[in-house]
Amino acid sequence: MNSTKNNLKALVFFLGPAMLAIFVFFFIPVVSAFVISFTDFDIYSLGNFANARFIGLRNYTQLFEDPLFWIALRNTFFFVILAGPLSVTVSLFAALLLNTKLVKFKGIFRLTYFMPVVTTLIAVAIVWRFIYHPRFGLLNYLLAFFHVNPVDWLGDPFWAMPAIVLMSVWKNFGYNMIIFIAGLNNIPSDLYEAATIEGASWWQQFKAITLPMLIPTTLFISLITMIGYFQLFAEPYIMTQGGPLNKTLSIVQYMYQEGFRWWNMGYSSAIAFVLFFIIFLGSVMQTLIQKKLKHT
Amino acid sequence: MKKVFLYLFLSISGILTIAPFVWMISASLMADGHASVYPPRFFPDETTLIQYHILFTRLNAYSNFINSLILSVLVTVVSLIFNSMAGYAFAKFRFKGKDKLFTILLSSMIIPAQVTMLPLFLMLKYMGFINTYMAIVIPGLANIFGIFMIRQYAISIPDSLLESARIDGATDFQIYWKIILPLCKPILVTLALFTFLGTWNDFLWPLIVLTDNSMYTLPVALANLMGEHTKDPELMMAGSVVTIIPVVIVFLSLQKYYLKGIMMGGVKE
């Protein structure tokens, strides 16, 4: 039973401010962006909205013929497909190691691995820019011990995106690690006890108990990781400015450039909605997988 | 044997994870040019605070620091009030369409913030708020995730408690203030942490709406500095240290709440 009759006044008082703020500064902008994406809103419309005209789907059709947009799309997908599974795997691995009974000082290791998560992305991107420095960077110095020749990580079209991937995995794996640890702790320990009595090896237990029990956690983690990674922006902005040869230009970066550097706001809104559409499709896919797994 | 190997592996991974920070701090203590050598120096040959001095005198990082601090505190306090009130209403009030409204809010969480940025910018521009604190505070007034977290927490507070307070003559506001808020303290601390760190670390939105150096937050000032001082790793590292140290201190002092918050979000399925 919920508490007694709340009069309208109390409801408006408690719920009103937040709902008004979300409605005015979130829902109205979403709808406006959708409308703007069907106009040629540009720098001339900035002074007077009346200068913007409806042009139907032209922004969207133009996008599909825009080579730079396809490059941004491909780069972002490349980033998500590479960094996403890698992040999730590293997180799971770290969580499993920290969850073994052998390890003491769990707290300290956990804290250490988590540290990159809370630190400011811009600041660490700057640090990594120098770590990747072709002549003075720590990475090439370390690799020299293994007789690897110096690489211009951020200046090489082939290596620039993988370098950003590596930094992102380092930055983010601690977050998912914590969620995995929570997931592991939720697995009833008597399952393992029973398996041990029956003589199942660590690997057998992992395959038969740990992995299946972690499926919901893994799906959730994959979803939030994917959503976050599709919004890639600050790393290339600081480390490569989208270069070399546009190899690290991301969707959000392209949206930012079109919208806030060239003030092509209609076009930029269309880009934002394509991003939304991709994230939406990804989420629907994850939900379907989850439903399917629940029924089998 | 297995144990030794495990510890060795964990320690090496730990060292590698922390190494960028160690190098950042030590490079920030070097004089110009001393970080650009081969082989790289892991520790300063001679320690100097000159980079910090340049940062706070010539480059005016002081005002950027203050901007970041004020904005992060402001957004945290205001959003905590808005979100906790709405979270309480969703947890304990009965009204028509409540579940529907809540579902709409939750499902709209997958809309990426970037979608709203252009119209929001235009709105703020016509309100005259571009390049003011309001441009950061307004979009942060309330957020769906925060409302969700508080609602999940407040829903477990027994109704009988609120009922007896009401019989004793407490008003809705007194119930919120004297019962709900104190009982929700853990989740409020967690949320405050998320919001503070989120605002402090935010980059894209401040980059869009703050247009001159005196209004920049630290990340935006740092990115701006990067453009001009690409060849000064020592100075850039000092800037990074100044940006990172506060969040690390805040996080370390309240880490229990932060990690619990992530776990709560993670097992909500």
Q: Secondary-structure map with pairings?
A:
The complex is a heterodimer of chains A (296) and B (269).
Chain A: H1 8-36, H2 43-47, H3 58-64, H4 67-99, H5 106-118, H6 121-131, H7 138-144, H8 160-185, H9 189-197, H10 202-213, H11 215-230, H12 234-239, H13 251-261, H14 265-295
Chain B: H1 2-28, H2 50-57, H3 61-92, H4 98-107, H5 114-126, H6 134-137, H7 144-154, H8 159-167, H9 172-183, H10 185-201, H11 204-209, H12 218-228, H13 233-253, H14 255-266
Helix pairs in contact in B: 1-13, 2-13, 3-7, 3-10, 10-14, 12-13
Description:
- The complex is a heterodimer of chains A (296) and B (269).
- Chain A has helices spanning 8-36, 43-47, 58-64, 67-99, 106-118, 121-131, 138-144, 160-185, 189-197, 202-213, 215-230, 234-239, 251-261, 265-295.
- By secondary structure, chain A is an all-alpha fold.
- Chain A has one domain (69-295): MetI-like fold.
- Chain B is mainly alpha-helical and 269 residues long.
- Chain B contains 14 helices and no strands.
- In chain B, α1 packs across α13 (233-253), α2 (50-57) packs across α13 (233-253) and α12 (218-228) runs antiparallel to α13.
- The two termini of chain B are 39 Å apart.
- The chains are: A mainly alpha (296), B mainly alpha (269).
